Automatic annotation (TrEMBL):
Extent of the signal sequence: 1-26
Span of domain Endonuclease/exonuclease/phosphatase: 45-402
Protein name, as recorded: Endonuclease/exonuclease/phosphatase domain-containing protein
Gene3D superfamilies (UniProt xref): Endonuclease/exonuclease/phosphatase
One Pfam family linked to the record: Exo_endo_phos
Alphabetized UniProt keyword annotations: Signal
Organism listed in the record: Alteromonas naphthalenivorans
Amino acid sequence: MKYRLLVSLFTLLSSTLLPTALNAEALESPEPLEIHKGLQTIKVATFNVSMESTNYKALGLAPSAKVLQKVLSNGENSQVKNIAEIIQRVNPDILLLNEFDYIADQSVGIDYFIKHYLNVSQGGQKAVDYGYVYTNTVNTGEPTNFDLDNNGKKEQFGGDAYGYGLYPGQYGMVVLSKYPIEQANARTFQTFKWQDMPNAQQPILPAASTDEKGTPWYSKEEWQAFRLSSKSHWDIPVNVNGKIVHILAMHPTPPNFDGAEDRNGTRNHDEIRLMADYLTPERGGYIYDDAGEQVSLKENDRFVLVGDFNAADIGDKHRPDVIEQLTESPLVNNRLIPTSAGGAAASSEAFSSRFTAYWGARADYVLPSQYGFDVKDAGVFWPTKDSDLYRLVNDRQASSDHRMVWVTLLVK
């Protein structure tokens, strides 16, 4: 108990006295912090691990979720070992994994990752365990009978799936937690129809002349069936010592890889808007979950938004009025922006310390509610090139093209 108290006091003093960017590598917190007059401090993180069909070409297999299952089965994949070491070093209490293929049989999917990678010391780090897991189906690779990409062929997968993917479950999501997940109260929004959002940004192919109206990208039948979420939107309630924290997880589509119709850009905007409306009681009345119930958060619900939102907040990749739907919401605390020394050194941009992706943008977010938390610390795991830990982020093959983002919160 004395050891845990000393560790807690050291971590608190470090987060208070040191700049976040300098703290990016000294992130280990062996136990949840238990001071502040009985209040609980938790670390919440998001990590796009880029583990969809890991190394399927090297294995000589066709892309499918079975490839990831094979990789996870033996604990020997170098990329996945590095991902596990990053997780062990940051040691979050609640963690969202993006781009972790959905495998219906959890025992040979996420359980394999926990057993063969996280429960095994990586790089001399202390093994970590997560007793609570949430995973579910996603729209990526979910086939349709439409020609959604308008290439003249109904191919079911790829650009004709509800969310771009070569097979069902690609680019999936998983929530890991050291605190109980209230599975029965989890809400998913995978099947919410885009057309059911008031004033939805329906993609329009511009007309050749400004005197003419543009043409809707999707046919009437397609628009009526089209799902808004490119993967899914989740509300996962986690019980932190009797206080419910809503983990609001998503992974909106990148706002590119399209054309003048901007179908991915408009979708990204409205995917983010769905979550912004969901957490705002007076705006979320139109939203229904996959059980068909109209739902939204209530006033003074604690929440943490997590995920790769594919929406930059500054710079040449920034699209105005997209991520601001969340970062400028009066219900969201965006005051302490996670940073890293590695990100700062990776670009000449004055704001690059906030980057979370190697291609130069703040794309991944952990955004707590104003209500119910004090933000104590935050960071991005991005070591500098002169660090011994740079081997973990050297390139996409080392771990991922994204960095883990974390925020430490005092639960009030």
